[in-house]
Design goal:
It is an enzyme of class 3 (hydrolase). The protein has 789 residues and is an alpha/beta fold. Helix content is 52%, strand content 16%. α2 runs antiparallel to α3 and α19 packs antiparallel against α20.
Length: 789
């Protein structure tokens, strides 16, 4: 139920209906759009929404569903019902074209069984009767005209007419040439008068040629004469034409009689075409406003994510501007949102957006919100918007508001959505404020849902201290003195009256006098709100900065873990290789010793030979020691460690410079990395030794280089869809590997196709937590921020 009667006009719903109306192909579809009303049954609303969503998918995917011909065949079916009537060629052709569309659509869905279940339900149990087409095809040609061979009699008459016309033309040409030869003919050629072919004869020669005069020129110097011989032939042709017409009517009556039993089926086809046209128009409008199907719930609550006013969206699109999205939620705990803020800051647009989108949803229309939004169903929608004063009803502005408030209080329920603009205005604020507060308290006690805009401070205070009510403000940049059109739940907003007055150049003496007259208390409250707004913006900026720093710390910790893992794996590998090499050395040494002992025994302990063998053994040992690769020995320094000194981690070759000393903890710079280690885990080394050791470890450098060269921004403008997806895949994999918290994808606006394609692909990554549009001043929905876990 809607109240008052002009509720649809005030919220813009009738304007939305008119835009849908323009997409209809037929008067039948337009009639359904005109009848479109707000519904309250969940199943019915869900069915209409799913039908529109499926048709939208067909249009976006450019499925080969050809729908271009619609006619109102209900009128023709009703005409067929009457005995003795018949349909003419054009009417039969309309039925034929419409049925071709019906069968083509049914064939399309049969080939895609179960893909579009909601649309398939439109023609469920609908019989396909192709005999209707066959009957019409025997009579009517592809251009909608009667076939010459529709019957044997018609073909015979048509042939006779063709022969007669040929004979007339032949006879007329002969007489015309003869008259020209005798100079009887006036300027001009053969012409038609009263449906008869005539020769233009000079008036002085009209008695020289027998025939019938049909007309003469304005000057009387030329007469238009039908020769006697041709006159008789033309009469015969006219009789044949009458015969032909009678035969055509006879054929049409027979065909109409044959179609009469199919009248109920034709009416069913008419209903299907009407619904199809209606759903198609809604889907086209949904594409125009980039609408989606939110999560539909039965409860009377709503959670709008990135919602936009459809009419404002279309208006801004022509001016190449973007709409700032609205995020708001209303439920059993947060029932009424009280929106305050500066004039022209977007309060009314916020309230109207909530109301209009709710109307559209409950009328079966997709809405321009994020598909993760949740929208429930309200039994009633009450709106008090604009000035409804009436001379006829003797109502002032305030009286008109009070009349609506009386109705709201009497009929509101927990399933009522109440929308009130500029609550309490129209009378003395000293009395209007308390009256509005009383109405608000009663409505809150009735647990109604709603959005209310106001400037009254007492209402802001009341909402701040009352359960079920929530203050909200439209953000305002008090440095640039410009509204941001962003809804901020949780606190009231200032009207910025003095700031705006100062910004537009109102004289200082006027502003100062107004401050004095306003009073210290009110000025203090307003100043407090302004300061709160300023502080909140500063806190927000601080949060952003802190979040960036936390992300950097997170990246550094991640890099440090990777470095530790690498070093641990590298240490194990080196130890394993050293053990293998040691084993080989021992084996070789054993072989050498055994060989030497064997030779000594063979020489029978000869002193000279034994001495020579011992020298050879010593040379082999020294040679093996020289061959073994040795790493440079790092000289340790036992002096006290200070900031700026170079140290090396115990049992590793990793070295770094001391940045800070906190008791037993040292903050080290390991390349571009930062790490905290215990003092007893490091040894001081000289700067010269540190540089040599640092050169042998490049892992940290490689990670730092990758991070420093990676830009969290990817420009995809001008790319084809497949190329853009490939670029996004490679880029996103690298961002996730390096641990970046967010990236920016620049795809441009255009028709929104590339944006939609990219966002649908990015959603497949489990690391993606959410996506947002860039701020309207910095590119809006032409840029997507992707946040990673």
């Amino acid at each position: 139920m809607l109240y008052p009667e002009n509720c649809q006009d005030r919220l813009g719903f009738n304007e939305v209906k008119q835009l849908v109306h323009q997409h209809c192909l037929s008067t039948m579809g337009q009639a359904l759009v005109n009848k479109m009303q707000v519904m309250t049954k969940h199943e019915q609303i869900n069915k209409f929404l799913r039908q529109t969503q499926e048709f939208k998918s067909i249009l976006i995917n450019q499925e080969p569903l050809q729908i271009s011909t619609f006619f109102d065949i209900k009128i023709l079916a009703e005409k067929i019902r009457v005995e003795g009537t018949y349909l003419v060629e054009d009417e039969l052709f309309q039925i034929y074209s419409s049925l071709q569309t019906v069968f083509s659509v049914i064939r399309f869905f049969d080939e895609r069984k179960d893909i579009y279940p909601s649309l398939e339900a439109l023609f469920e149990h609908l019989q396909i009767e192709k005999n209707i087409l066959k009957n019409i095809e025997t009579v009517i040609d592809a251009k909608g005209k009667m076939k010459p061979n529709a019957s044997a009699e018609l073909q015979e008459i048509t042939t006779a007419i063709a022969r007669g016309e040929q004979e007339v033309r032949k006879k007329m040409d002969a007489i015309y040439k003869m008259a020209i030869g005798k100079n009887w003919v006036a300027d001009g050629s053969l012409t038609i008068r009263d449906g008869r072919m005539c020769i233009p004869i000079l008036a002085e020669h009209k008695r020289k040629l027998k025939g019938f005069i049909h007309d003469e020129s304005a000057s009387g110097q030329t007469v238009y004469l039908e020769p006697e011989e041709v006159f008789t032939l033309n009469n015969k042709l006219r009789d044949l034409e009458f015969d032909r017409r009678r035969e055509i009517i006879k054929i049409l009556i027979a065909l109409t009689t044959a179609l009469r039993p199919y009248t109920p089926l034709l009416l069913s086809y008419h209903g299907f075409l009407t619904k199809l046209d209606f759903v198609r128009a809604k889907a086209l409008f949904a594409i125009d406003i980039d609408a989606n199907m939110p999560v539909l719930i039965k409860e009377a609550k709503t959670k709008l994510i990135n919602a936009r006013h459809p009419l404002l969206l279309l208006s801004f699109a022509t001016e190449k501007k973007t709409v700032v999205p609205l995020n708001i939620h209303i439920n059993e705990h947060l029932r009424i949102v009280l929106v305050s803020g500066p004039n022209a800051g977007g309060k009314s647009v916020c309230m109207k957006t909530v109301g209009l989108l709710q109307m559209m949803l409950q009328a079966g229309l997709l809405v321009p919100v994020d598909e993760n939004s949740e929208m429930g169903i309200f039994d009633q929608i009450f709106a008090d918007i604009g000035d409804d004063q009436s001379i006829e009803s003797d109502l002032s502005t305030y009286s008109a508001h009070l009349t609506k408030m009386r109705y709201f209080v009497a009929h509101a329920s927990p399933k009522t959505l109440v929308l009130i603009d500029e609550f309490g205005t129209g009378t003395d604020p000293q009395f209007g404020g308390p009256m509005a507060e009383a109405v608000l308290e009663v409505l809150n006690n009735k647990k109604v849902r709603g959005v209310i805009t106001t400037h009254y401070s007492n209402l802001k205070l009341f909402a701040g201290n009352t359960n079920g009510l929530e203050n909200a403000s439209m953000l305002f940049d008090n440095r640039k003195m410009k509204p941001l059109y962003i809804l901020d739940l949780g606190k009231p907003g200032s009207s910025y009256a003095f700031e705006i007055a100062q910004n537009i150049g109102l004289q200082p003496e006027v502003i100062n006098l107004a401050r004095i007259k306003t009073g210290d208390n009110q000025n203090s409250v307003d100043s407090l709100l302004v300061n709160l707004e300023r502080e909140k913006r500063q806190i927000h900026e601080t949060k952003v900065t802190l979040a960036n720093q936390q992300n950097k710390v997170k990246n550094l910790v991640s890099e440090n873990e990777k470095l530790k893992l690498y070093l641990e794996e590298n240490r194990k590998t080196l130890i394993k290789e050293a053990k293998l090499e040691a084993q080989n050395i021992i084996k070789e040494a054993n072989k050498l010793v055994e060989h030497t002992i064997a030779e000594i025994k063979e020489k029978q302990a000869d002193k000279v030979a034994t001495k020579q063998l011992r020298q050879n053994l010593q040379k082999s040992i020294v040679s093996n020691e020289v061959k073994e690769e040795r790493k440079p020995v790092v000289k340790l320094d036992d002096s006290t460690i200070e900031v700026g000194d170079w140290v090396q981690l115990v049992n590793t070759e990793t070295s770094g410079q001391v940045l800070e000393i906190n008791r037993d903890n040292l903050v080290l710079a390991l390349g571009d990395l930062r790490s905290v280690v215990k003092r007893n885990r490091v040894q001081k080394i000289s700067n010269k030794q540190a540089k040599k050791v640092a050169q042998s470890n490049s892992f940290s450098g490689r990670i730092s280089e990758a991070i420093s060269t990676f830009r969290p921004e990817l420009d995809l403008r001008g790319m084809r869809g497949e190329n853009a997806i490939q670029e996004v895949e490679n880029y996103l994999d690298k961002a996730i590997m390096l641990g970046f918290p967010s990236i920016k994808l620049i795809h441009g606006k255009g028709d929104g196709i590339l944006r939609k394609l990219i966002r649908e692909y990015v959603r497949k990554y489990k690391e993606v937590t959410r996506m947002e549009d860039e701020h309207a001043d910095r590119g809006g929905d032409g840029i997507t921020y992707v946040y990673l876990s």
